[in-house]
TrEMBL record:
<feature type="domain" description="Urocanase Rossmann-like">
    <location>
        <begin position="213"/>
        <end position="428"/>
    </location>
</feature>
<comment type="similarity">
    <text>Belongs to the urocanase family.</text>
</comment>
<dbReference type="InterPro" id="IPR038364">
    <property type="entry name" value="Urocanase_central_sf"/>
</dbReference>
<comment type="function">
    <text>Catalyzes the conversion of urocanate to 4-imidazolone-5-propionate.</text>
</comment>
<feature type="domain" description="Urocanase N-terminal">
    <location>
        <begin position="84"/>
        <end position="210"/>
    </location>
</feature>
<comment type="pathway">
    <text>Amino-acid degradation; L-histidine degradation into L-glutamate; N-formimidoyl-L-glutamate from L-histidine: step 2/3.</text>
</comment>
<feature type="binding site">
    <location>
        <begin position="125"/>
        <end position="126"/>
    </location>
    <ligand>
        <name>NAD(+)</name>
    </ligand>
</feature>
<feature type="binding site">
    <location>
        <position position="395"/>
    </location>
    <ligand>
        <name>NAD(+)</name>
    </ligand>
</feature>
<keyword id="KW-0456">Lyase</keyword>
<feature type="domain" description="Urocanase C-terminal">
    <location>
        <begin position="434"/>
        <end position="637"/>
    </location>
</feature>
<dbReference type="InterPro" id="IPR055351">
    <property type="entry name" value="Urocanase"/>
</dbReference>
<dbReference type="GO" id="GO:0019557">
    <property type="term" value="P:L-histidine catabolic process to glutamate and formate"/>
</dbReference>
<dbReference type="InterPro" id="IPR035400">
    <property type="entry name" value="Urocanase_N"/>
</dbReference>
<keyword id="KW-0963">Cytoplasm</keyword>
<dbReference type="Pfam" id="PF01175">
    <property type="entry name" value="Urocanase"/>
</dbReference>
<dbReference type="InterPro" id="IPR035085">
    <property type="entry name" value="Urocanase_Rossmann-like"/>
</dbReference>
<protein>
    <recommendedName>
        <fullName>Urocanate hydratase</fullName>
        <ecNumber>4.2.1.49</ecNumber>
    </recommendedName>
</protein>
Length: 660
């Protein structure tokens, strides 16, 4: 059977052979045993409904074993035999070029080189899933291969509900993930309803088919580190950045540190994750001994090296060792998946990786106690360093939130601040980027050709350099950082999986770059381009402890912006849209939305990109402006000057003296 035939087959009528459990790749940890006997039966009935009744007797014991052994029904038997990766778009079967592009992006998210737990259909973050099981994948790909440009596929938390008649300007796919009734959005609710097979955690770009490997977070981390050093008025050369996590998106940190030019130490407890990043060249050195690590870091900082070092062990030990050896840390953070602290997102000090996984599955209450004890100990060590001048920031992974819930000493004495340390959005990304409209604009070359990517890099660089000539002084640093980034992108070898790129741009920059791409496609210089962005952006995400943490008018706990964003994108020309509960800070803590847009060089594509990209950014700037963020007020006034059709309600500022 050819690849195209396999896609078009969908769920096979004849059962494929049962596949052995492959121990050579990273697997998701066993999930909590949370279902009652009756609920387990319901979960099995839910899984079997994908298959003809004649197969139920064979599949029932198999699915029951998966549920008991792993806490979920993944349907491993139905994992495809073909290799999953982002093929050139023309290699996919189908009637719609847009649908083929979506298939490309789905496969990119599940590429072994990209996905954290590919056999469990999890892209990153420990639980960021594209689908809940392999039947959903097979059925979705079949629907996409049959779709016309007059249909829309509705996907409910990984389940393809079906193709519905629509029209050519409608999204080809509308994705929802984890959209729970609010009273059913606690962490254990995810465990229960995900085990039942009725919802999933799509993270941000995992369940919306827009992950481009760690490159996206490399860029964001590079910008954060550069601006972090600027805040403490120190050059990056010879500076020390200490953090943790090498799996999934956090694995981008050492690469970002190298691009920024500092010494980066990143601790990781999972040896496979460390080996993967080292083999990919994303981390330079691996050290397993604390004394050797201490000696190497002293040498690297003294010589002002640009080097990234992975510590094969727990981050808590590193914070404590560096305090004991009087090693000064300039920037400190943490990027373990603390949005998911009880199911593999954070591994407590004092337990091996294997011991922690065993306790997590078989003694979850004790595991929770160990995690919270570890967080208290980690914060105690961090506080020793910050007392000596270390700049520590929460990197949007719910570190401070979970540490506070554990009783760690992170609360602020300042009544205007919740935590003693800022979120990186509060200090850096919010006022320096998001409020001005700068956020993570990305694209994928559907041809799969590196030469197409190089041409798009050149086009984007030319557009940004031209725009910078007339940019106001307020945004020139961000413009320059992104010009430097895109010019070094080829040399830094950032591609993992699809031929993709990311940079930060405002609405004007995004529209101008996309227009230049569309023109180049129409002239035959490059092939089809797929536009997207991280949900971690100006408009797409309402997250009170990350993306909207610098919103101070009380509205950071509302989700109007994200909902308005995805609805607005859908009727302004997006090829697909997504809206999720949960993201980098956790289930029930954030609502986030994203999009994908296919550029084919047509006038229709030009009309859509101009309409949609302008809204996609300025929706968020308007909301940030209404929250009285002065940078956003500046940005939205500029947008209104450039487009007379935009009329935004501006805030009136109140004199503080009236309240004294």
């Amino acid at each position: 059977m050819t690849f195209k035939e396999a896609i078009q087959q969908g769920i096979p009528s004849l059962l494929p052979e049962k596949k052995p459990y492959d121990t050579s790749i990273n697997h998701a940890p066993k999930r909590k045993d949370i279902l009652t006997k009756e609920e387990k039966e319901l979960a099995l009935r839910n899984a079997l409904r994908y298959f003809e009744p004649k197969h139920h007797a064979t599949l029932l014991p198999e699915f029951r074993e998966e549920l008991e052994k792993y806490g979920r029904i993944y349907m491993y038997r139905f994992r495809p035999d073909y290799k999953i990766y982002a093929r050139p778009v023309d290699e996919y079967p189908g009637k719609s070029q847009q649908a083929k592009a979506i298939m490309l992006m789905i496969q990119n998210n599940l590429d072994y080189a990209v996905a954290q737990h590919p056999h469990e259909l999890i892209t990153y973050g420990g639980n960021g899933a594209v689908f809940q099981n392999w039947a959903q994948y097979l059925l979705t790909m079949k629907y996409l291969s049959e779709m016309t440009d007059e249909q829309t596929l509705a996907v409910y938390s990984g389940h393809p509900m079906g193709l519905f008649p629509s029209h050519k300007d409608a999204p080809r796919v509308v994705v929802t993930n984890g959209m729970m009734i609010p009273n059913y959005s606690k962490p254990d609710d995810w465990e229960k309803f995900n085990a039942l097979g009725v919802t999933q955690y799509g993270q941000m770009t995992a369940g919306s088919y827009m992950y481009i490997g760690p490159q996206g977070i490399v860029h964001g981390t590079t910008i954060t580190v550069l601006n972090g050093f600027r805040k403490i008025k120190k050059e990056t050369k010879g500076g020390l950045f200490l953090t943790s996590g090498l799996g999934g998106m956090s694995g981008a940190q050492p690469k970002a540190g190298n691009i920024a030019g500092c010494v980066t130490v990143c601790a990781e407890v999972n040896k496979k994750a460390t080996e993967t990043r080292h083999s990919q060249g994303w981390v330079d050195e691996v050290i397993s001994d604390l004394n050797a690590l201490s000696k190497r870091v002293k040498e690297a900082t003294a010589n002002k090296e640009t080097v990234s070092i992975a510590y094969d062990g727990n981050i808590v030990e590193v914070w404590e060792k560096f305090a004991e050896d009087n090693i000064h840390i300039d920037l400190g953070s943490d990027q373990t998946s603390l949005h998911n602290p009880w199911a593999g997102g954070y591994y407590p000090v004092g337990l091996t990786y294997e011991e922690a996984n065993e306790m997590m599955a078989n003694n979850p209450e004790q595991f929770k106690k160990e995690v919270q004890k570890s967080l208290r100990r980690q914060v105690e060590a961090i506080n020793k360093h910050t007392a000596k001048g270390t700049y520590f920031f929460d990197y949007g992974n719910a570190f401070l939130l979970e540490a506070s819930r554990a009783g760690a000493d992170v609360l602020s004495e300042d009544k205007n601040k919740e935590f003693r340390y800022p979120s990186y959005v509060q200090d850096i990304m919010g006022p320096m980027c998001f409020d001005y409209g700068f956020g993570p604009f990305r694209w994928v070359c559907a041809s799969g050709k590196p030469e197409d990517l190089q041409k798009t890099d050149e086009i984007a660089s030319e557009v940004l350099e031209e725009l910078m000539k007339k940019s106001p002084v307020e945004i020139r640093q961000q413009m320059q950082d992104n010009i430097t980034w895109i010019k070094g992108a080829q040399e830094n070898k950032l591609v993992v999986g699809s031929q993709a790129r990311i940079l930060y741009a405002d609405a004007d920059g995004r529209v101008q770059i996309a227009s230049a791409f569309n023109k180049a496609i129409s002239e035959g210089k490059i092939s089809t381009i797929i536009l997207g962005r991280d949900h971690h952006d100006v408009s797409g995400t309402d997250s009170p402890y990350r993306e909207t943490s610098n919103i101070y008018d009380g509205s950071r706990f509302t989700a109007d912006m994200a909902i308005q964003n995805v609805i607005g994108d859908s009727f302004r020309g997006a090829t697909w849209v997504s809206i999720h509960n949960g993201g980098g800070v956790g289930w029930g803590e954030v609502i986030n939305g994203g999009f994908g847009m296919v550029l084919d060089g047509s006038d229709d594509a030009q009309r859509r990109l101009e309409n949609m990209l302008f809204w996609d950014v300025n929706n968020g700037i308007a909301r940030r402006s209404w929250a009285r963020n002065e940078e956003a007020v500046f940005a939205i006034k500029r947008a209104m000057e450039n487009n007379p059709s935009l009329k935004v309600t501006l805030p009136n500022f109140v004199d503080d003296k009236l309240f004294t």
